[in-house]
Amino acid sequence: MKSVTRLRGMHDTPQDFWLRKRNLQDRLVQLIGSYGYRYLETPILESTELFLRKSGGELTSRMYSFTDAGSNSVSLRPEFTSPIVRHYLEHAQDVALPARWQYAGPVFRYDKGGQGSGQFTQVGAELLGSSSVMSDVELLGLASHVPFQLGLSGYQIRVADLDVVHSVLDAVGVSERARTFIIESVPQLKEGRKAVPGVLERARHLHLAVEEAPDDALSQAIQGLDDTQSRKVLHGLLNWTAADQFGQRDPDEVVERLLRKLRGGDDLAVLEKALNLISDLAGISGDPAASVAALRAVVTAAGANMAAVDRFEEFLNLVRSEPGVAQSLVVDLGLVRGLAYYNGLVFEVTHPRCATPLAGGGRYDGLARALGSPDPLPALGFAYTLESLLAVTEGSDNGKGGASEADGALVMAWDSESYRPALQAAADLRQQGVQTELDVCGRDLSQGLDYARKMGIAQVIVVNRDGQQTAHDTRSRQR
Amino acid sequence: MTAEEETTLRLVLPSDGALHEPTLNFFGACGLSVLRPNSRRYTGTIPALSGVEVLFQRTADITEKVEEGSAELGVTGLDRLLEYRHDDHTVAALINDLRYGQCDFVLAVPNSWLDVTSVADLADLALEFRQQGKQLRIATKYPRLLRHYLFDRGINYFTLVPASGTMEAAPAAGYADLIADITATGTTLRENQLKILEEGTILVSQACLIGNIDLLKRSKTCLKLARSIMEVMEAHLRAEPFFRVTANVQGTSPQEVSGTVLARPDLAGLRGPTIARVYNVEEQDWYSVSLLIKKNQLLEAVDHLRSCGAVDIAASQVTYLFNGFSTAYHNLFENGESGGEC
Known about the structure:
Low-confidence stretches of chain A: 398-403
Radius of gyration of chain A: 31 Å
Oligomer: heterodimer
Low-confidence stretches of chain B: 336-342
Radius of gyration of chain B: 26 Å
Largest sheet of chain A: 9 strands, mixed
Largest sheet of chain B: 6 strands, mixed
Strand content of chain A: 15-25%
Structural class of chain A: alpha/beta
Number of helices of chain A: 19
Helix content of chain A: 40-55%
Shape of chain B: globular
Distance between the termini of chain A: 43 Å
Number of helices of chain B: 12
Strand order of the largest sheet of chain B: 2-3-1-4-11-5
Shape of chain A: elongated
Order of helices and strands of chain B: EHEEHEHEEHEHEHEHEEHHEHEEHEH
Strand order of the largest sheet of chain A: 1-5-6-14-13-12-7-11-10
Strand content of chain B: 25-35%
Number of strands of chain B: 15
């Protein structure tokens, strides 16, 4: 029969590595705890819906989802933020805000490639219930304290502020749809203005921007009509088709979108202006002071409100004095992410020895609403990937766990008459705190010594039927 | 553990659905007629090829059966192979297109969505739904293919509603907004007030021959039998568009006859006509001309031969057309490991 193998992306953790990992995790939990973050353990298995609402498509497609025996659609958690917010919403009456929670444990994300995939460990913190600049400073300060405490060097803390981006888009005046599209396009736009024509082309393809009215039968039908008249015509057309399935939409929605499509979306020139400004913003990265100056220039050019930049600057100034921040803080507006409920601060902790970020975090004031909260709940958090941290601390004494030098004992019975005294001897040794193995294979002394050397056991103790013990040091060559 | 080398090749064929009959017909046309003692038995044999055991399974299960090693070979739809097989590609399409069982995997939305005509519209609508805090719900039996397709087009916000069978009713029943489903003609979609989106064809599928590569490599006997099946199928597929035309033409020499026939090189066979002397009692010079002609050129070729003075023009369908070697077999088993996969 073929043997059953380990799944891709899943790893067995041998003792040495497990000790290092647990040791590092304990240090992080202790550090985060010292800021007042209470430990919260959430289930590994949650309703699939919880993560769907948070992540939309991309992460969802990488979830380990299945239907349980009770026909519930469930998933192994791919992240902790949604479970933490779910916990808060379930206990909102009993929780005083701001609430500080920390967590540590395995998360699961499927990936064909293999990098950062399968099962890995996240350690993180969430701060719920404050929108003050002080909460941003505390959280980023804490995130920065982690590598600082571990004595790591060469790491960078890259920060951006989504509200600055929004203030520019507010000033230019784009539709909600175009706004979402533009923020999703930041990864392309950070290449600079040369990326704008390509993005604009995509926008046109999505009917987000139109130069001239399309020349099809429907457009002709409403040509020269005002919006009210056009709506009547299109409603009439819809009745005419006698189609009555709309899914989650209603006839008004269909007519409104159709009208918008026929009349064209955002003005092309406005959209282009917005894309140019956002590509200028997205390209800003580097030293905080210089970056803020560059941000001010773009915001001024857009004629936008300076409040978001002011707050970002205040944040940068305050956070600089937190442990490990000053030498590692970099502004990088290209970090801005597209998820709908993200706003304000976004950051990543990176290290040259690790291809993926060590940690990511930011503000997500809109998530609680998406998860069904009646009230808005300002919140922010971060998560470290423990395996990445271990990889970059490897070799330094700081991340190190248990000693790998030989210690402990192997107790062997001289013959079958000596079993009882051997059991007693092993029990006594364990009582004294010595890690003790019992020979359960009836080996002779030379085999016992070979085994003990292989396993890194320091002593082999042979016990005879009278309870007399003879100790042999495995580190010496004599027998 | 040392495994006994398999001496029987197990071939799993669809026992149900749209592929059942055409598959048996195709095997028959390839000269590999399947003998099934009675219709309630789920096993059969191919008398023309001893050593092959035929198993009948539901079409939906065939990829899995071959993957788990219950059979070395199978016939199923390309759609089902691409949706169900594991990432490690133990199962590969040995012959991608057996030229039957054609169907399209398409996105279809309610007719009433006058504003949604293309996949670009759908991308836009997904954004709009997200802003309204709604998820676009798509019913499908092929979540994996659909997800890939949507992500590739920048559509990230949707919920898949797993469904099998009568999916066309999902929007009417209210558990999905649109569907991604298999259609051969589009009739059922139309009858359920659904329309196919422009650029909304996710996959063009047809029947294919699949095989468990690892398993086949482990047994020389199986590999040999698989090779025979692949060769015969390829030769049949290659032959299918051709007619063999023979005619008698009068002339003074083979050169003269070939000269007149080759006046239309496009109608003169794959590599030119075969011309042989006809021996008869009257002492006239007759030559037999033999050509391979594409089906759609048959009448044209007959006219051309007539104009060359041909009589006794016979045309017959070609059953097999063998090449120097089996392309599919060569790609998979002789030329690297994974060539020829789709």
